Amino acid sequence: MLGLYDEAQCVARLENEVGAPFDESFYSAYHAWLAAIQPQVTLPRRAAPEFVTDEADERALLNLFLYEDERDAKTPVNGVSVAQMFEERDPEDVARNIARARTAYETLADYSPARRRLFDAVVTRIISTGLRGVSGGSANSCIGVLWINPPKKASPDDVVEFIVHELAHTLGYIDETATPHFQSEAFGQVIPAFSAVRCQQRPLYHVMHSLFVGCELLAFRKEQPRLKDLRLHPGTVQLRTSCAASLASVMDLPVERIFTERGLDVVSAIGRFLAREKAAADRTLAAAGVS
Hints:
By secondary structure, the protein is mostly helical.
C-alpha cells in the first residue's frame, strides 16, 4: 500500500509479518508463511510470479475465487459459472490475456520500480481465464494469486492500473492476516459503508479494501503522469472525491468498537493521505486561479 506508506515502511511490515529479511531469503520464507495459512493453494517452484497456462492449474485456482455473497458480486462467480467458463475456454483468448498481463507487468517496472519490487515479492501465480462480466481480481482465500481478465476495451495502461489495484488488495490481505484490522466481534457483522471504487453501499470489509485501492491508484497516478486512455477506474477527481466520501462514511461508524489498534492505524493513514491529496489539489486549483 504505497499510497499509505512509503516503500521502506511496506518492506518493514512484510519482513515483520513473514519473519524474514527482504532479500534472497524472503521468497522461501513467504512461501512457507503462505503454505501454513492456505495449504490448499499450490505455489510456483521459482521465485517470481508465474503466468499459469495449464488448464488443470487454472481450474484449481479459479475454484478458490468462488464468491459466497452473490448479492455483492457484479457477476456471480460460483460453481456453475466456473464450470461454464471452462466449457467455453478458448486457449487463444487465454494466451491473449496472458500477453496483455505480461506487458503490463513489464511496464510496471518502468512506471513504478518500487511497486514492481513489491509485486515480485508477494504475487505468486497469475491466471487469465475468461469469464464474461468479470475482470478478475484477488481474494483473501488465495493470497498471492491474481486473476487478470480485463475487458477488451481496456487500454494497456488500464491493465497496468489493474495489477496495481490487485497489488493493493494483496498487501492488504497480508497485513490483515498477520495483524487483524477488525475486532473479533465486529468481523462477522455486515456493516455497510460507502465504497470508494464502486460508489455504492458495500460491507465494511470491502469498503476498506476499496479505500486501499483508491488511495493506491491516486498515488500511482501522481507518480506516473504518463498514464493515458484510462477507462476502467474512475477519473482522478472523481476518485479523490469518492475516497473522501468513503472515509467519511467509515468515520460515521463507532470505529473504536469495530477496528483493532492496527485497523485504526490504517484508517488514520488513509485520512492523512487523503488530506495531503486534497491540499495538493487545492494548491493546483489556486495556482490556476480557480476558486
